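Anyone able to model this chain together with adenosine-5'-triphosphate?
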Amino acid sequence: MAAQDFAAKAERFIIGVMSGTSADGVDAALVAVRGSGEQLSWRLLRHETLQYSLKVRDLILGCAEGGRGDAAAICRLNVLLGELFARAAAHVAAKAGIALEGVDLIGSHGQTIQHLPAPVSITGINVRGSLQLGEPAVIAERTGITTVAQFRARDLAAGGQGSPLHSYVDFLIFRNRARGRLVLNLGGIASLTAIPASAPAERVIGFDTGPGNLVIDGLVSRLTSGREAFDHGGRYARRGTISQALLQSLLRHPYLQAPPPKSCGREEFGLPFLERILKENASVSPYDLIATATRFTADSIAVACRSFVLPHNVYEEAIVSGGGARNDYLMEQLRAAIPELSIKESDEYGLPAHAKEAVAIAILANETMLGMANNLPAATGASRPVVLGSITAGHRSR
Ligand SMILES: Nc1ncnc2c1ncn2[C@@H]1O[C@H](COP(=O)(O)OP(=O)(O)OP(=O)(O)O)[C@@H](O)[C@H]1O
Ligand SMILES: [Mg+2]
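re: yes, here you go
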């Protein structure tokens, strides 16, 4: 669809496709969007999750941190994920009872394989990057729908972290005149957006606080010999006792003390981090390890709040989204770690915790098509507001 036709529509149907650091599956959300920027309004029509098969998950993790990511493997995985994302988009539209001809746009985040925002000098040139796979040409070709992808690259090129990008959307949908709000997303990585009451976008802070589910998932997978991928409802953690010695050593991770803007991924809290915990704590029981990793996740968020957020403004509540919101034990630990905040799930605000990131990508894609700057330099550290994403034209029009 041409940009001017898109802009002329009062209401646009947009599918956001998201697959995060957890590499658990693809979330697809069909959203009806009106307006843009601070005039934007939205309705979630349908959300679906398609789990990755074990084979696909293994290919992703093999490329991301398993040393099995040669150029051929990455090339093929890029196309395979494009096919799966196209299927996820078609699936959510079908479930919503809407033909693909009726969908105006797809926003696809892509599967992160490497996130390397720290500069490395190569031949005297500073190089920073983040690689997301899921070929948009395949998505546009299979669905016929214009597809926006590669959101992070432009923010990085403008000097930003390329993350967290959803802070802009958090500002649009959760800002409040009277109440200062934190928006927390507990995906593989945990991220935070801090929106003071009646603040303009320039005063919003956003950064990754550290691990979300990544360390918990890693331990559960290892300790169940791969039979389980996460701690359902936090039931394993609940059986354990927190090891204070291990907790204190985890809390010394340098990422936690580094000031924002900052973002992280499997590079900081993935396999090598997990291996070290297991090696150095062989005498700690599996349940205790999982309980301690869960408390570490909660405490690392509390450290971020106390160091960089709460001293600077008044915040009353925290709105939590992402799969980690379904881990009751983690939520309890979070409430214990930051008792001064009222901590609620985003579901209470009309946005199912699982759908949040996919909805955010749909809204970011809307802004891209309209040529609106949709990064938040105050969050990512970019030198200026930029229009994120690359547009691949579809061949359907509504
Ligand atoms: N019922 C549950 N109990 C405990 N944990 C859960 C439950 N459901 C989901 N999770 C956790 O949520 C994770 C998936 O969350 P989500 O899809 O939000 O993360 P993600 O794919 O890493 O996304 P992103 O990093 O972009 O936010 C799972 O790996 C698991 O750890
Ligand atoms: Mg996920």
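The first strand starts at residue 12 and ends at 18.
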